[in-house]
Hints:
Helix content: 25-40%
Number of strands: 16
Strand content: 15-25%
CATH superfamily of the largest domain: Bira Bifunctional Protein, Domain 2
Shape: elongated
Mean pLDDT: 89
CATH architecture of the largest domain: 2-Layer Sandwich
Structural class: alpha+beta
Strand order of the largest sheet: 1-5-6-11-10-9-7-8
Number of domains: 2
CATH topology of the largest domain: BirA Bifunctional Protein, domain 2
Largest sheet: 8 strands, mixed
Radius of gyration: 27 Å
Number of helices: 15
Amino acid sequence: xxxxxxxxxxxxxxxxxxxxxxxxxxxxxxxxxxxxxxxxxxxxxxxxxxxxxxxxxxxxxxxxxxxxxxxxxxxxxxxxxxxxxxxxxxxxxxxxxxxxxxxxxxxxxxxxxxxxxxxxxxxxxxxxxxxxxxxxxxxxxxxxxxxxxxxxxxxxxxxxxxxxxxxxxxxxxxxxxxxxxxxxxxxxxxxxxxxxxxxxxxxxxxxxxxxxxxxxxxxxxxxxxxxxxxxxxxxxxxxxxxxxxxxxxxxxxxxxxxxxxxxxxxxxxxxxxxxxxxxxxxxxxxxxxxxxxxxxxxxxxxxxxxxxxxxxxxxxxxxxxxxxxxxxxxxxxxxxxxxxxxxxxxxxxxxxxxxxxxxxxxxxxxxxxxxxxxxxxxxxxxxxxxxxxxxxxxxxxxxxxxxxxxxxxxxxxxxxxxxxxxxx
Length: 424
């Protein structure tokens, strides 16, 4: 009988890699708190209608990529392909607007789309996303973009990233934008790829985002949304740009940037890593001022973004594990009595908040030291029968490759002081 294997496009995150993922998540949580965001956790599946209404029937996600199933109660459910629609559903259902005029939440977790697996694109993938719901002020747009750049550039330290920015108007100017684009594209419909020929009637703005060479040639001369913005949208976009300039955040105007979801209005943005090849978008987002009303709520503005963690991991220079700081204590023992004493020390260290490890396999000292290196601990306590008799212990600093002999009685307080000094 053949061994069972995982689903293609849904890779395991093994223990050797999970520390790097935890670091990304911890760093994100810290900066999100600084910006005033609190966590929201929505279910991994929702009613299919939520995504059809929220994302749009004419999108690739709804038409081709959703994992949809019928449960025992004959209800159609879908594994979440993105995070905004579930957050908006929760915002309305739990009347979160009553808590604050501007609700700022973030989410972190897996999403699911049945795409063709390739480098940087998976069927189960992970996102960190934020949503700021309740204000249409340009300063909120600028703050959301500043948060994204702080996270990717200042915290994750990913080099050479490019921020691309656009505005795609609102219901006041969208008809004019679409009319000009449709007239241009219908005259050249035979030159469009088969997919964009379908988009021509159901979601024409997506043609601007097509990667096919023939379509790109047409798009280069096509009318752009920025050329047809109404006065209010043009003023909003000018203020967003002015604030980004004030914050010294570099950006490029990309008049073809429309994003793939129908709910976007006004500001759209994307951060790309030019070193990643075809799947180079690390994050993207924008305004969705009509989404809440579309989903049955009052007219309420909102803006957000999502970061793809798999692509972030691929973008961070060097090995993610090497960037994880050495932490905690490994107790290497020789002899049964020394092992028992080591267990007592270990339990006290753990109760005092220190990461602690010990060998349970009676390996040689050399084998235990090898394991301590693999476990990336900062300190190693070496305790043998002779040290136990003398009431001493050897403390080795794994980062500095230095060691010293200490009295066993005060070693816990000494280690706690070293741990405190290391976090300052």
